[in-house]
Structure formats: structure tokens, C-alpha cells
Amino acid sequence: MEKSQSLAAILKGPKNLCLEMRDIPDPGKNEVLVEVKACAICGSDFHLIDGHTKRARLPVVPGHELMGKVVDVGKNVSKDIIGNRFCIENHVACGECRYCKANRENLCNNSRSIGTTIDGGYSQHVIAPANKLVPIPDKLDDATASVMQTLATGYHVVNNRANLKKNETAAIIGVGPIGLCTLACAKQIGARVIVIDTVEDRLSLAKKMGADETINALEVDPVEKVKTLTDGEGAEVSFEIVGGNQSKTIQQSIDMLCKGGRTVIVGVSGIDIPIDFQPIQHLEKVIIGSRGHPYSFMPCIEHVVSGNLNISEMITHQIPLSMVEEGIKMMRERKDGAVKVVLIPNE
Ligand SMILES: [Zn+2]
Ligand SMILES: [Zn+2]
User: Fold this and answer.
1) pLDDT tens per residue across span 82-133
2) Which ligand places an atom closest to the C-alpha of 177?
3) In terms of domains, do 136 and 23 share one?
4) Overall pTM surpassing 0.85 (yes/no)
5) Distance, CA 111 to ligand 2 centroid (Å)?
6) Which domain covers residue 215, as residue numbers?
7) pLDDT tens digit sequence for 204-253
8) Distance, CA 325 to ligand 2 centroid (Å)?
9) Cβ < 5 A residues, ion ligand 2
10) Ligand 1 center from residue 276 Cα (angstroms)
11) Confidence class of residue 347 from pLDDT cuts 50, 70 and 90?
12) Pick from 115, 120, 8, 38: which is nearest to 315 by CA?
């Protein structure tokens, strides 16, 4: 019997992304087949495509910020969900290890990752575990739903890691998409937010999305400026969300804190960076890591639908899957004001 086929962008090796027709896969036990409606391109996809993601298993279809419509179900999954739209949580934890049992599934010992170790959303169809589906209300459009993963990352950073509170001052270094989502979540709980970047376009977008103050780090010393804006004391919380060179920004994120302040490191560069640990001891400053977006899709969807969180300014482009290479280029080069480029694989 001939199987029907659909389009997918398959990463076969570093910088070798191939658009191909391939057989539509069958859902196995506890799995569903999803027609991908929207998949946002993410900065971390560039690391994967360039060959810098160690845990990747090639060949693989990239794309971990995805949503779509269930079109078939495997064994043990109710047919009632066929036709419904869902976000797909890309991080697939085992549910059994000590971390999963302690409600820290983002630290799971045996996790798999859609779009990195198993096929993702740069594709017209994808297989997903049924327990990773998050229902989407009608009010939420496809493109916005695909960006819930980025928003959930910012939500986890602000609410679960920094434990940011109303009226605290937070400084965000780096407003790429995760930085902008962190800004949106920090404003949602009523914090005062100072945003630092080196790109003027991004600073004005941050302003539109609610930043109280913006600092261009090419023009002024961001540490001094944050202190001036906080009566000489520093911010209670800082977020380091720099995607590229962090050689200065990690130390800055510590130095711009008030005594007892906390910094959350979200950016990843993988290089060795010397840090002055004296303020950690002497001034009781705290360095916190943040990984992923555990248990954060649902609250984000609720906040967006109720109008408490708005990230629509961030979604700058929607393009067909056949234009995936152009989309990646646009985001890498920040061409045409590109912030979030969303693939629409089934038009
Ligand atoms: Zn991502
Ligand atoms: Zn686990």
C-alpha cells in the first residue's frame, strides 16, 4: 500500500537542512499524529543547525516551539481529541526519576526533546506523546500559541526561579525573544523593569512592551546606570539573557544587584568566564540558573487569553515551511525587524 507523504525540513548534518517529502508517520502507543499549524523558529535552533548541540540525534527535524491539530491517535489515546488544537510541550520527561517525582521534570535524568532528539515541527506532520499536549482555547490564534514555549521560559525564570515580587526592580540584560517574554512576565506581576541591550530596535520594542527604562549598553555603563535609577543601591533582581558573548554581562548582572539581590542566568555560551565571588559572600548576592519551562504552559495560556500578558508585538513574520531557510536567515540577521518568525507548514 502506498503511504501518503508530507513536507519536512530534515537536518542531516551541520548546516545541512533538506526540505523533503516523506511518509507521514503512524502514531504508536500513547502517541498522536499532529498536523503542524504553526512552529516558531527559536535562537536555539541555530545552535542545533550549526552542529553545536551535543545531545542532538541526527537526522532530526528541528522545531520545538510548535502547535497543531490532532489528526490521528495511537493505542490508549481517546479518539475524542481528533480535530482539537494543542500546544506541544517539547520537553518529554520520564515521569519516573527522582527529579520528575520531585516536580522538577526539567531536570529529568532520561528526558527526550522534540526538535532535538526526536522529530519536531519544521514539518507538516509530527508525532507527539499524548501526555505532552496542552489544550488551546479558541481565542488563542495559531502563531501566538506556537510562541507559548518562549513565553513559558520567561514565566519560569520570573516566577519560579527569581521569585520576583510586585514593586521590586528587575534589570534584564538582553532582549531577544526570551528577554522580551521575561519582560512581559515581570510587568504582569507588577515589577519595575529596566531593560539593557545594544540594539536600538530591540530597546524601542521593549519600551512598547512595557519596559519602564531602557539602557543602550554601547552608550552608557549599564551597571552605573542601573544604580543611578535605584537610588545608588542596585536592582533586587537581574536576568542575564544574552545569547552570544557573555564575557562582560555575567559579572554585570551580579554588579548591578543591590545587597542580597538575586541574578538568574538564562543565557548560554559554554565558555569559561571568570567571576568575582566576593560580592556573593560579602553582600549575600545569589546566582540562580534556569532551565526550560516546566509546568508553565497552562498559566501562560490563561494569562494571554485573559489579556494579562501580551506578546503579539513579538511575532513579526509568518511564512510557509518552504521558506524555512529564509526565515532562519531573517532571524539570525534580524532582517526586516525580525524578532519571532513563525512557520505555517499547512496553509
Ligand atoms: Zn526555543
Ligand atoms: Zn525523569
Assistant:
1) 999 999 999 999 999 999 999 999 999 999 999 999 999 999 999 999 999 9
2) 1
3) yes
4) yes
5) 6
6) 151-289
7) 999 999 999 999 999 999 999 999 999 999 999 999 999 778 889 999 99
8) 34
9) 93-94, 97, 100, 108
10) 30
11) confident
12) 38
- 298 belongs to a structural domain: no
Give me the CATH number covering residue 237: 3.40.50.720
Instruction: Say how many Å lie between the CA of residue 47 and the centre of ligand 1.
Output: 11
Q: Work out how many domains the chain is built from and give that number.
A: 2
Same domain (yes/no): 258, 226: yes
Q: What are the CA-CA distances from residue 170 to residues 157, 235, 263, 323, 339 (Å)?
A: 12, 6, 9, 38, 22
For 120, residues 6+ apart whose C-beta sits below 8 A from its C-beta are 39, 60, 61, 62, 63, 64, 66, 90, 114, 126
141 CA distance to ligand 1 middle (Å)? 19
Do 49 and 169 fall into the same domain?
no
What does the angle CA 136 – CA 165 – CA 149 come to, to the nearest 5 degrees?
25
Distance from residue 248's CA to the centre of ligand 1 (Å)? 24
User: Distance from the CA of 298 to the center of ligand 2, in angstroms?
Assistant: 20
Give 1's pLDDT tier (boundaries 50, 70, 90): very low
Q: Are residues 20 and 141 in the same domain?
A: yes
